[in-house]
Description:
Layout: H1 13-16, H2 23-42, H3 45-71, H4 79-96, H5 102-121, H6 130-149, E1 161-163, E2 167-170, E3 173-176, H7 182-205, H8 207-217, H9 219-224, H10 229-255, E4 258-260, H11 266-279, H12 284-307, H13 314-334, H14 339-353
Helix pairs in contact: 3-7, 3-10, 3-11, 3-12, 4-5, 4-6, 4-10, 5-10, 7-8, 8-10, 11-12, 12-13, 12-14
Amino acid sequence: xxxxxxxxxxxxxxxxxxxxxxxxxxxxxxxxxxxxxxxxxxxxxxxxxxxxxxxxxxxxxxxxxxxxxxxxxxxxxxxxxxxxxxxxxxxxxxxxxxxxxxxxxxxxxxxxxxxxxxxxxxxxxxxxxxxxxxxxxxxxxxxxxxxxxxxxxxxxxxxxxxxxxxxxxxxxxxxxxxxxxxxxxxxxxxxxxxxxxxxxxxxxxxxxxxxxxxxxxxxxxxxxxxxxxxxxxxxxxxxxxxxxxxxxxxxxxxxxxxxxxxxxxxxxxxxxxxxxxxxxxxxxxxxxxxxxxxxxxxxxxxxxxxxxxxxxxxxxxxxxxxxxxxxxxxxxxxxxxxxxxxxxxxxxxxxxxxxxxx
Length: 358
């Protein structure tokens, strides 16, 4: 009886279409945010750097791909290349303009990646489906090859590796470089990802989000009712690339501190694609659930057998990880195409009806 919509009356259109119309949902979100903000007080450096940082950054990248594939229906296999674009754009901006604030650097790197995404999204006006996937796959290989072969992007580094210079958000609060603390990195990443997730949630609920979903469901019918495919598709590519570019910049500057172009190869694109398939296509929450699953599964496979006395070799863990990913993708595509996000919604509905779940 604690999770009911009964008795909660809404007297305006805005209240009826709020993101969290039920009081219990707002309380739950406040509790989750409070726990997330309190994590640095109790979590170890291992949890902050090894688990939570990649989870948040992967969630942002999956969110960007979900906007393009889950909401707009444009299949992309070039996510890794766009992450590389964001990482190298941020590196060139920080080294060329040392006075730029790191927040502005990430925003500009996302805008540069958005421009690249629009360029490679132009073929979507003529092709779709498998052919569009091949076109974005070509973008993946081209971008990684470009950053790997042209030394200008690495400031002519002999090793081809870029290193993040120390940058602060304000004062002495460094979030990149050797002076940055794990707590500062985590809180900065959490804030940025939360704000971008809130922006994505609102975009999917407004006119531009409805145009994406109309193009996804039936592009011909959408064009008949007045939706311009040019605007809808290119805006989806631009906003998706912006999110992925910011995620790539954060991966290189906040998580790894140094990276090379080969870190964003095709396996990175497939990894993020697996996140949105397992988490749920066309779902903001699904991006986070899929990222959490992908990040935690290898850690579980590495540590769980050792706790019961059966340690596993690293290669065996890797192969087992790929097998589980493949089986889960087939399972979700056949049984539950909306992924973990749909299972979450089913659980919430049963909780609302409890103790009469049927």
